[in-house]
Design brief:
The protein is α/β, with parallel strands linked by helices and about 230 residues long. The chain contains 7 helices and 11 strands. The chain has one domain: Rossmann fold (3-Layer(aba) Sandwich), CATH 3.40.50.880. The strands form 3 sheets. Strands 5-2-1-6-7-11-10 form a 7-stranded mixed β-sheet, with helices on both faces. Strand 3 and strand 4 form a beta hairpin. Helix 1 runs parallel beside helix 4 and helix 4 runs antiparallel to helix 5. It starts with 12 loop residues before the first strand and ends with a helix.
């Protein structure tokens, strides 16, 4: 992927991406890369402080901006999956609620959508999340809608991994227009051809889905214990 040529007519865009100890880099890397390569984008990896933390699996990361120093006005507030303990962290929830109340877009992939719900940002909206956790959206007043990417007003949510790229392309379309969105897709050579066409519950079928749920049940139960308590 290469940088587009600088264009003085391109708007300045501020992006705040939440990171946390134990966060899942796979969920944020698509949006981080796609927007981070655009001229005029001010991109912040945000946490309580700027001490090094580690994502999962082992992915040392240094936040660039603390909650206190993050701009009050952001165009995009984005989160991917984080550990269940973050859902009870009042400082994190207050930060998300504040910035999200004014953001042009509130966006999340995987269980980052539930975290936005915990911050009060999905009440009354349609949304999606990782298939293991869609049943928890209702706890935060959101309505689950099937689909890899779900957009409702200025809320946009997606499943894990590739969902971050697909959110990014849609937001580039909104902010910059169709032409740059098309170029961003080409620059990323985003043309998925999965080895097996089983990338959703509907495609995978009941046997494979049940096995996948069983393998991740400990994580799901931990999340349920926090969300439903």
């Amino acid at each position: 992927m290469t940088l587009p040529m600088p264009d003085s007519s391109m708007p300045e865009v501020t992006v705040a991406i939440l990171v946390a100890p134990g966060f899942m880099p796979v969920d944020i890397i698509g949006l981080h890369t796609t927007f981070g390569l655009l001229p005029g984008v001010k991109l912040h990896l945000v946490w309580k402080n700027t001490d090094e933390l580690t994502g999962v699996p082992t992915f040392p990361t240094r936040p660039t901006t603390s909650f206190v120093d993050c701009p009050r006005e952001v165009d995009i507030l984005f989160a991917g999956a984080v550990p269940a303990a973050v859902f009870r962290d009042e400082e994190t929830l207050a930060f998300l609620a504040d910035r999200g109340s004014r953001a042009r877009w509130v966006a999340a992939s995987c269980t980052g959508a539930l975290l936005m719900g915990a911050a009060g940002l999905l009440k009354g909206y349609r949304a999606t999340t990782n298939f293991h956790a869609t049943h928890l959206l209702a706890h935060y007043g959101a309505t689950h809608q099937a689909g890899n990417v779900v957009e409702d007003g200025n809320r946009i949510t997606a499943g894990p991994a590739t969902g971050g790229f697909e959110i990014a392309f849609r937001l580039i379309q909104d902010i910059y227009g169709d032409d740059l969105a098309r170029e961003a897709i080409l620059q990323a050579e985003y043309a998925p051809e999965p080895l097996f066409d089983v990338g959703s519950v509907e495609l995978a079928g009941p046997e494979l889905t049940a096995r996948a749920r069983a393998h991740t049940r400990p994580m799901t139960e931990e999340l349920e214990s926090v969300v439903l308590s």
